[in-house]
Backbone:
């Protein structure tokens, strides 16, 4: 995806604020390398160095210096994967419909069961990944971003339940 940038804040934050999801497994610390973008035009500050496009950089470590610039990146897709065989125990036969949700660090899975039969499954990436892909990084992020973390997981779960 190509996008024009005019804001001079941190590039990862600018992309997130404009609705584009990035894989920030390290919580924006610059250690995972998954938020790499192609700098197509403009002058940028990358890791405290001035860089003229074209080139590539980690979005979490980059900000625009010129009046505008263009970047190309792959946004994080909304789908995660459900591990095969994760649902193997027989279910009790009941008349009610039951929803089960598994909130993992990177993926959220949901299953809809009616009369003991699985009638729907869905999964997505946990939107909290923008704050890190492990529990310790997220605990650190919670100090300053607790309400954002809560909103992210609510949004992910709500989207899955709507799908089912």
Residues:
């Amino acid at each position: 995806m190509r996008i024009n940038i005019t804001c001079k804040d941190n590039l990862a934050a600018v992309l997130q604020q404009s609705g584009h999801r990035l894989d920030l497994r390290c919580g924006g610390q610059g250690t995972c390398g998954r938020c790499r973008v192609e700098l197509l035009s403009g002058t940028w500050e990358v890791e405290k160095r001035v860089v003229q496009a074209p080139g590539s950089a980690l979005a979490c470590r980059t900000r625009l210096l010129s009046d505008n610039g263009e970047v190309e990146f792959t946004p994080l897709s909304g789908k995660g994967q459900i591990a095969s065989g994760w649902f193997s125990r027989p279910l009790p036969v009941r008349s009610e419909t039951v929803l089960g949700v598994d909130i993992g660090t990177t993926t959220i899975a949901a299953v809809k069961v009616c009369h003991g039969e699985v009638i729907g499954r869905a999964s997505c990436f946990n939107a909290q990944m923008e704050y890190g892909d492990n529990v310790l990084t997220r605990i650190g992020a919670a100090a300053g971003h607790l309400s954002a973390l809560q909103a992210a997981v609510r949004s992910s779960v709500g989207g899955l339940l709507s799908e089912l």
In short: The helical segments are 11-17, 135-163. Strands lie at 2-5, 36-41, 43-46, 49-52, 55-58, 62-64, 69-72, 97-103, 107-114, 117-125. The mean pLDDT is 85. Residues 87 and 111 are 9 Å apart (CA to CA).
